[in-house]
Design a protein that fits this description.
Largest sheet: 8 strands, antiparallel, barrel
Number of strands: 9
CATH class: Mainly Beta
CATH topology: Lipocalin
Shape: elongated
Number of domains: 1
Strand content: over 45%
Order of helices and strands: HEEEEEEEEE
Number of helices: 1
Radius of gyration: 25 Å
Oligomer: single chain
Distance between the termini: 35 Å
Structural class: mainly beta
Strand order of the largest sheet: 1-3-4-5-6-7-8-9
Length: 239
């Protein structure tokens, strides 16, 4: 009987601790671990002319999203979010027509974006150690990128460099997640949701043929993307 009462007391103490952290006026501080991905694969393009182009594609990407918010009610958090992202892509492109044509392209980009977020926790009167929530985030920002490319073929060899400037970024994310308290004031988050990413930038390039004059110019690029985002992170709930 004493063991049962002790277990019940410990359980009630844990729930009381959670209720003290999920309360109006408390601070919400932490960061999504973000994305840390490495993709590698071979892309094959079979042209109607009979040529087959193979691309050995490697992509590394990492990002973090620190956040600071405040509970305006016992359920609703309003705050600000900062997203910092770095991407590295390397492509080795070859043609299988025995022409000796090959291209190596390496791209690097760094972006940042800032904006508000809303998070709503679902519970009745007493929150448990594991809570369900929905969250919406909107971010705007900028960044920069660069690409180096080396192309070799019997009649057309060149080296090109380019820089991405005047970059505008807009990101929107809506997700459904779970918060699980692993300590008195710290919790682990896991969320899955929809992600929209829009980028617009101007690329200035210089192409230097083996024999010939440098060809310079610029091109404007617009990239809208839709996808699914899986994220995890740690957050602190401070009175």
């Amino acid at each position: 009987m004493k063991k049962i009462l002790l277990a019940a007391a410990v359980c009630m103490a844990g729930l009381s601790s959670v209720k003290a952290q999920i309360a109006k006026g408390n601070l919400f501080v932490g960061s999504d671990i973000g994305t840390a991905t490495f993709n590698s694969g071979t892309l094959t393009y079979d042209y109607s002319t009979g040529n087959i182009q193979k691309t050995d594609h490697k992509k590394f990407e990492i990002g973090v999203s620190p956040a600071l918010g405040v509970f305006v009610t016992d359920h609703l958090v309003i705050g600000g979010n900062l997203n910092v992202n770095y991407s590295h892509i390397k492509d080795n492109i070859t043609l299988t027509d025995a022409s000796g044509t090959g291209t190596v392209a390496t791209s690097n980009s760094s972006t940042y974006a800032i904006g508000p977020f809303l998070r709503y926790y679902f519970f009745n009167t007493t929150p448990s150690k594991t809570l369900l929530y929905i969250q919406g985030v909107a971010l705007v920002g900028s960044g920069s990128g660069s690409t180096n490319e080396s192309h070799v073929s019997p009649g057309d060899s060149y080296v090109s460099t380019s820089n991405d400037n005047n970059m505008f970024i807009f990101r929107a994310n809506g997700s459904l997640g779970i918060t699980h308290f692993i300590g008195k004031s710290v919790a682990l988050d896991v969320a899955l949701g929809y992600l929209y990413n829009y980028e617009k930038y101007t690329t200035n390039y210089n192409i230097q043929p083996t024999n010939g004059a440098v060809n310079s110019g610029s091109v404007k690029t617009t990239v809208p993307e839709n996808g699914v985002a899986l994220s995890a992170g740690f957050h602190f709930f401070l009175p």
